[in-house]
Write a sequence for this structure.
């Protein structure tokens, strides 16, 4: 069970209204997903994962933003065992990075999971083109198609159309779930299963959270909101386990894209201690007082636990609010619960700021400029 060390003033009526609005939102499908995951689809995903493990040394996961950060966060945090290693591509437009990924796969056997809800995002489209070419050169058209797994929209988009025409194995990003809320759908479940994550336990942890975390999650949302109203405009997510760096990245995207609109929201930044005590630590202790710290307190070893305490005392002494979110267990159950806790907190928090948690109109601006240049 997630524990929190704060108790903000909560407007229960408003909270109930917000929870109702999220449940009725056409993009609120993630709210009950862990409890009503389509079991037929779940079995198909696990079968595909087994096939990939049997025939590939590498699975290249192609996607950006919500189409990759969630599963990378869990795979890196849990570091499970699997003979098939995961490689990420299509999350930047750097030719250097793409060449590096192609070189890493080299002559090894590999499969590709291309993940894009819209099916039109440039970064994954370019990487997919390159890896598809490599697959065809190595295995020929037919076997290459059998090694491509497309996770995309149910009925539209360039990737959908290509997957249908070429006969790729397809998995669906549900219509009512947006990218950054999709880690517990096929988007995350397939790569995590290939990487050796116990996806049954992950979903079980999330399913149990559906009722259990409503209170702490809504309190956390209200706490954020009340701090923001007192001119704290930056939230520092702090963890003490280096392997959770990508979980922090997932959090930044979740909150940043959900909340940062109409000149509202809190700027999410992240640190991993004790490494960053020797970089951003100085600023957090003693710099401009516009930030608060949210410690994600994973169960850890004795010495590391002492640092958590020391940092908390020192930073409170430095005059910044420190929130502590105690994670119940460092395993699939614990992360399932944690994912759901943050998704719910984030949606409620965005609603408190009066913005839509499920769109990202600002992301279009750079895309339009890039289109002009290309
Ligand atoms: O959260 C979101 O909706 C975004 O971060 C998307 O996941 C990201 O832009 C990638 O979009 P797509 O899956 O359509 O390629």
């Amino acid at each position: 069970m997630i524990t929190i060390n704060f108790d903000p003033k909560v407007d229960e009526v408003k909270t109930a209204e917000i929870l109702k609005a999220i449940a009725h939102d056409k993009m609120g499908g993630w709210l009950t997903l862990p409890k009503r995951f389509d079991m037929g689809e779940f079995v198909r995903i696990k079968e595909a994962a087994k096939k990939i493990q049997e025939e590939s040394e590498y699975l290249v996961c192609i996607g950006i933003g919500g189409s990759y950060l969630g599963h990378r966060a869990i795979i890196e945090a849990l570091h499970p065992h699997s003979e098939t290693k995961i490689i990420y591509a299509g999350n930047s437009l750097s030719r250097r990075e793409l060449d590096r990924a192609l070189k890493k796969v080299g002559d090894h056997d590999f499969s590709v999971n291309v993940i894009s809800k819209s099916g039109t995002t440039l970064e994954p489209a370019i990487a997919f083109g390159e890896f598809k070419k490599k697959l065809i050169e190595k295995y020929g058209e037919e076997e290459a198609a059998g090694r491509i797994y497309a996770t995309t929209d149910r009925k539209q988009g360039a990737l959908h159309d290509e997957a249908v025409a070429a006969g790729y194995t397809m998995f669906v990003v549900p219509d009512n779930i947006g990218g950054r809320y999709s880690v517990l759908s096929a988007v995350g479940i397939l790569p995590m299963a290939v990487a050796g994550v116990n996806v049954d336990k992950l979903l079980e942890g999330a399913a149990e959270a559906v009722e259990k975390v409503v209170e702490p999650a809504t309190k956390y949302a209200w706490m954020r909101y009340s701090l923001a109203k007192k001119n704290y405009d930056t939230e520092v997510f702090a963890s003490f386990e280096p392997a959770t760096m990508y979980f922090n990245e997932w959090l930044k995207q979740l909150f940043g894209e959900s909340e940062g609109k109409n000149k509202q929201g809190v700027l999410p930044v992240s640190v991993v201690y004790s490494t960053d005590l020797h970089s951003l630590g100085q600023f957090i202790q003693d710099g401009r007082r516009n930030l608060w710290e949210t410690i994600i307190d994973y169960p850890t070893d004795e010495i590391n636990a002492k640092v958590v305490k020391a940092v908390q005392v020192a930073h409170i002494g430095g005059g910044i609010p420190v929130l502590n979110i105690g994670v119940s267990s460092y395993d699939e159950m614990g992360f399932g619960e944690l994912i759901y806790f943050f998704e719910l907190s984030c949606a409620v928090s965005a609603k408190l700021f009066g913005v839509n948690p499920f769109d990202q109109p600002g992301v279009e601006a750079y895309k339009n400029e890039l289109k002009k240049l290309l």
In short: Residues 122-146 form the longest helix (25 residues). Residues 64-67, 116-118, 121, 124, 178-180, 257, 360, 363 surround 5-phosphoarabinonic acid (CB under 6 Å). The radius of gyration is 21 Å.
